[in-house]
Predict the structure.
Amino acid sequence: MRRRRALPLLVALGACVLAAPVRAEEPASPAVAAPASGDVPVLRFGAGSAKGGFTRLAGVLAQGLEETGDRVRLDIQHTKGSCENIKLLLTGELDVALVQYDVAAEAFKASQSPPDEEEDGGDDDAFGGWMCRISADMARGADLTLIAALTEGAVQMLVRRPVRIDDFEQIGDAPVYLGKDGSGSFETAKVIVGAAGKTVEGLRLVQGGSGDAFDALRRQELLMMLRTTERGDEDIADIVSSGLASINPLPEDVLNRLIDGYPYYRICQ
């Protein structure tokens, strides 16, 4: 019998996105503010938490700009990550930000959705239909431009050994960790759970940071965790090498739904 390899799902983890206002009557800070003569323009740049990977990447970008002529500077602003960054871009409070690619792609899709013409005088400001609970009306308020995809991330399902999950129904009421609510990793996990025919509301979610979740997995208090990280993540490598958890392949039907429905997901090779 052919054994299925535990291939993680691949998603662009750090995409650099630029926002400009769509409506001319809405004055917002331009992407590159007009500086006084001799001044260097400054961009409000959304990163992540103070010690997070997005902030480290933003620091590298800022240093690179300084070393290549200092024609523009970055005002690095700490945020909660992808979800807050995309919202601040759409509301004009950031000029450029690092956003997980699937979150950015969903915002693009939301901006292209037509207003609901059936509702008399209503708007389509209902939240919840798009990643990070943005509304289509909010997304249509800004013109988003993808500057570059900077890093690739892998979505990996870690399962307490010796358990193997072939169907998400096996999870039942067991505790699982999907990431911090509002993070890009959590939003990706929600999509995966949905592709499995479940909702996050129907799962027993463990809250907190990833460090706490790894500790719970080591204590055998956690059944499963979904992590979106750069490939070669040390925490994942450590817990797998310890023999306490293994990388479980996503069920094939879930993978097929993800790849068919979201072209920015693919299998890591």
